[in-house]
Write a structure and sequence with these properties.
alpha+beta, 8-stranded parallel β-barrel, 6-stranded antiparallel sheet, hydrolase
């Protein structure tokens, strides 16, 4: 049904004032604390139809400049926001919180910022009666600041509501799950400030992976060391005190000893039962904001999938019975059950769906993990871009999961997601812009299917030493994706050959349902018709514009421009000058480091063949070998490493031709021969 046009405006708080400090609840960034603040809010319903409506909200800052804002209101008739753009939406029953995105945090005195949303309603669609800017009431009064409402512990009637309130979420990985102690894998100990940083960014929950085995005594008691239990409790306490839900689990235990269930059934089960009995007892009086996950990525040695499903069901059932039988708050605590391998194949989803149905308990959720179509996520087998097959893999996995669980009233937590190895061995496993497209699509489809997503952060996103984001632009894109889409173009790079003549370059717009608003070079808007043309969804940059942007045409990125859209975060396009990369001869032992003059270019993928044309390398089933396993580029120091994993997989004495396909469009051949432990490389 088409919306009926409605022009219903509400203006509140024309000169409300308040002293706003950086500690104000709900604040995302730093806020000027020198003087009183004032605000004006204009709320306008622009379209309405049975069960739905569209609204715009404009906030004008009448006080000192603000760097970080949060606008809150409550629905009088049970309305709900279904999708928001140009702000982050945090739902909580009748309460609504809209927070700035990275690019619109600053609002100068007298300036305005605006956002919009679609909503649902039934009965009446009465306008809100008050708004709060950074926790202060916009009521037209002056003087002392009004108090920010503080709520007690959340209470949820069912798992669907609680899981919805966990979104968005993050893992604090490679820490309490690390083998050898909390700091053994290079991360600092978790602090309350770390949790406050996540909360300030807009996260509503954390997944706290915990590996217990190294802190567990021998059978038959399998006693968990008190210092371990209390350290976990300390982090849980901090999370709850900072209004973060928290989910704890048995993490690397899954492959350290739980996977031996088929081979040592009684002892493994006794240990599992003892661990969960101790954990359930320790936390049984905790608030509902704490939830339990049976175990991480269940797997069972020597079993076929169907048999693995049976062992997974056995563990999940024992976990459920122990927690529910421990009393206290565990009577109706949210419990999360994983599929075998946390996989989203239909045959993995069905057994968990059947089990949850049999439990007849509305405080149970299901969990899967998703790291993308594997060949794309690790760049193997000729999938360097987020193309149709990768998109179809995501769409299929999420649709199956939705149709099996969410459509039947069982909430879904995507307990881990990201790109495999991102930030661990280097961000170039998957080309940066292609990774951004994947991230945006994951979050979009998760919103459509009402999944809660827990990104896997093992320090690659938030630097836990400095409490700063390694890549603020990436984090802005992630944050925006919680509530809206962002646009893109077909590629985030334009390669200009230094020795060649610069011509016009065309790209295709990926609008994602948005409107294209133009291209900017810093604060300067490029002129359509002069600097670029737009024909349908084809964006063509003029040769003269690219020549100007390339400047002196030094190798590498000469300029970064932005395509902007009606919502979301702008899309960056890098203007890069390059010539063909030059590789040099090299000799190594066990592995090979090839001196490389990159000349501004980058590897797209790597192909390897023997002289007879057969595939060479660890992935014998494909000519295109895996990034970080068979090729490791170093763009800063000028080299390509041929790792030992590749060298060990090739035949002794037989030359292998490696072809490095580069994003600039060129390819470079290189010959590698292994003789015993010696490896020689020859440039073509």
């Amino acid at each position: 049904m088409s919306p009926t046009t409605v022009r219903r405006r509400l203006r509140l708080g024309v000169i409300a004032t308040a002293a706003v400090t950086a500690m104000t609840a709900g604040l995302v960034g730093a806020v000027s604390a020198q003087a009183a603040q004032g605000c004006e809010v204009e709320y306008e319903v622009t379209g309405e139809w049975p069960g739905g409506f569209i609204a715009d909200v404009e906030v004008t800052n009448l006080g000192e400049a603000v760097d970080g804002w949060s606008l809150e209101w409550s629905w009088p008739d049970g309305q709900r926001v279904t999708n928001m753009w140009n702000a982050k939406h945090t739902p909580s029953g009748d309460a609504v919180k809209a927070e700035n995105l990275g690019y619109n945090a600053k609002v100068a005195t007298g300036d305005s910022t605006s956002f919009g949303f679609t909503g649902s309603w039934s009965g009446e669609n009465t306008d809100p009666t008050e708004f709060r800017l950074n926790g202060r009431l916009c009521d037209g009064t002056t003087g002392e600041p009004t108090e920010t409402p503080t709520g007690g512990p959340q209470e949820w009637d069912n798992a669907v509501d609680q899981v919805a309130d966990m979104e968005p979420s993050t893992n604090i990985g490679n820490t309490l799950d690390a083998l050898g102690g909390e700091t053994a894998w290079g991360n600092p100990m978790i602090t309350e400030e770390l949790l406050q940083t996540y909360k300030a960014e807009g996260y509503n929950s954390i997944r706290l992976p915990v590996t217990w085995d190294e802190f567990t005594g021998p059978g038959p008691d399998y006693a968990i060391a008190p210092e371990r239990m209390e350290r976990v409790a300390q982090v849980v306490d901090w999370a709850l005190e900072n209004d973060l839900q928290v989910m704890i689990n048995l993490h690397h235990d899954s492959w350290m000893w739980l996977d031996e269930l088929p081979n040592d059934h009684d002892n493994v089960m006794a240990k599992f039962e003892s661990m969960w009995t101790q954990i359930a007892t320790r936390f049984k009086d905790y608030p509902e904001g704490l939830s339990f996950e049976s175990n991480n990525e269940p797997q069972f040695a020597g079993t076929e999938n169907d048999a693995g499903d049976l062992y997974n069901e056995e563990l999940n059932q024992v976990f459920y019975d122990i927690v529910r039988g421990s009393g206290g708050g565990n009577d109706d605590r949210l419990l999360v059950l994983p599929t075998l391998h946390t996989n989203a194949a239909q045959e993995r989803l069905d057994p968990v769906k059947a089990m949850i149905d049999s439990l007849d308990d509305d405080m149970v959720a299901a969990t899967i993990h998703y790291y993308g179509f594997w060949p794309f996520s690790v760049n193997v087998a000729g999938f360097p871009t987020y193309e149709e097959q990768s998109q179809a893999d995501l769409a299929g996995a999420f649709k199956r999961t939705h149709d099996t669980f969410t459509a039947n009233g069982i909430p879904v937590i995507v307990g881990e997601w990201a790109i495999l190895n991102y930030g661990v061995t280097g961000p170039q496993v998957v080309e940066y812009g292609e990774m951004l497209k994947f991230f945006e699509d994951v979050q979009f489809q998760a919103r459509e299917y009402h999944f809660t997503t827990m990104i896997w952060d093992a320090i690659q996103f938030l630097n836990r030493n400095t409490l700063e984001w390694h890549d603020p632009y990436l984090q802005d894109r992630i944050s925006a994706s919680w509530t809206t889409r962002s646009g893109a173009t077909s590629f985030d790079r334009i390669y200009l050959e230094k020795a060649g003549t610069i011509g016009d370059v065309s790209q295709t717009l990926d609008l994602n349902g948005l409107e294209f608003e133009g291209v900017w070079d810093g604060d300067t808007q490029l002129v359509e018709g002069t600097d670029y043309t737009l024909s349908g969804d084809t964006l063509t940059f003029k040769a003269a514009t690219l020549t100007r942007l390339a400047g002196d045409r030094a190798y590498g990125t000469n300029a970064t421009i932005e395509a902007r859209f009606s919502a979301g975060v702008p899309w960056r396009i890098n203007i890069i000058t390059f010539d063909q990369a030059v590789l040099s001869d090299a000799t190594g032992t066990g592995s090979l480091v090839i001196p490389t003059q990159w000349n501004g270019d980058h590897i797209e993928q790597m192909e390897a063949h023997y002289a007879d044309g057969s595939n060479a390398g660890p992935a014998e089933w494909t000519a295109f070998q895996e990034s970080q396993v068979s090729w490791l580029p170093d763009y800063i120091n000028g080299s390509i490493t041929v790792p030992s994993a590749f060298v060990n997989a090739i035949r002794d004495g037989e030359p292998v031709t490696i072809t490095y396909h580069l994003w600039g469009g060129e390819s470079v051949d290189y010959t590698v021969v292994k003789n015993g432990t010696t490896v020689t490389g020859t440039a073509s």
